[in-house]
Amino acid sequence: MDLIEVLPRRLHMFRFRIGQGYLWRDGADLTPIDAGDIGAASAIEDAVRGLGLDPARIGRIVLTHGHRDHYGAAQELADRHGAEILAHPLDAPVIRGELPVPEPDLLDWERPLYEHGLTVPEAPPTRVDREVADGEVLPFGGGARVVHAPGHTPGSIALHLPRHGVLFTGGCVAGVEEVMLGVFNVDRARAQETFRRLAALEARTVCFGHGDPLTEDAAAVMRAAAGVSAAPAGAIPTTHRPQGHHRC
């Protein structure tokens, strides 16, 4: 697993074998956004310790949606450190194992990618301690606002940290070679509308569930990819490049 710095002393990316998650730091207090597949818990802990931090300071794990490569390790990690697991009410029953994963509406070119994604081991039934709604503000990152982001799955969420200009898109938007609508959507039209709404947030740093974070001219790139009109003149974007990375 790679660990890549996105924002100095604030934000790192976990690059798993398929997809990625993120670690937000408020001093010593830690919030993972997504938790990788079922085998990722120890690698996440090792990465945290490699930063000189204590995994016991993980207070919450926010799950952006109910796909196996995003929540497989969540309960193991939460159980080890007493963290709570958060997800949207529409995906919570899937994460808990009470409902099956909804079937995506695949385009022909997505089918081989989907088959490859199924090589990730199935996630175990995972508790959701707290269900979070659109507009709810979570106590990290100076106030992390939950944005219901349906289309990829019914209960997909994004997280917007306006104080820091950071947006986590989950699976709705991807950054693989270019910024684009995410794949494997259950409702492509709703996913496209979600993409437009997220682009309109004008984030300066955009973190995808698949693909490298967008750290330069992020607002303009997101608008162009989503087909959203430019914001009023006068806003000056602040950009960052991901820095070094460590292999875990």
Task: Explain what this protein looks like in three dimensions.
- The protein has 248 residues and is α+β, with helices and mostly antiparallel strands.
- It is globular.
- It has helices at residues 41-50, 68-71, 74-81, 92-95, 111-117, 188-199, 218-226, and strands at residues 2-7, 11-15, 20-26, 29-33, 60-62, 84-87, 130-131, 137-138, 144-148, 157-161, 166-170, 173-174, 180-181, 205-208, 245-247.
- It contains 7 helices and 15 strands.
- Strand 1 (2-7) and strand 2 form a beta hairpin.
- It comes from Streptomyces cyaneofuscatus.
- Residues 18-210 form the Metallo-beta-lactamase domain.
- It holds the Pfam family Lactamase_B.
Percentage of residues in DSSP E strands: 15-25%
Per DSSP, the total helix count is 7
Taking Cα atoms only, what radius of gyration do you get, to the nearest Å? Answer: 17 Å
Gap between N and C termini: 5 Å
Strand order of the largest sheet: 4-3-2-1-15
C-alpha geometry: globular
- Helix percentage range: 10-25%
Series of H and E elements: EEEEHEHHEHHEEEEEEEHEHE
Protein name: MBL fold metallo-hydrolase
Domain Metallo-beta-lactamase: 18-210
Question: How do the helices and strands line up, and which of them pair or pack?
Answer:
Elements lengths: L1 E6 L3 E5 L4 E7 L2 E5 L7 H10 L9 E3 L5 H4 L2 H8 L2 E4 L4 H4 L15 H7 L12 E2 L5 E2 L5 E5 L8 E5 L4 E5 L2 E2 L5 E2 L6 H12 L5 E4 L9 H9 L18 E3 L1
Parallel strand pairs: 5-6, 6-7, 11-14
Antiparallel strand pairs: 1-2, 1-15, 2-3, 3-4, 8-9, 9-10, 10-11, 12-13
Helix pairs in contact: 6-7
Pfam family, one: Lactamase_B
Protein name: MBL fold metallo-hydrolase
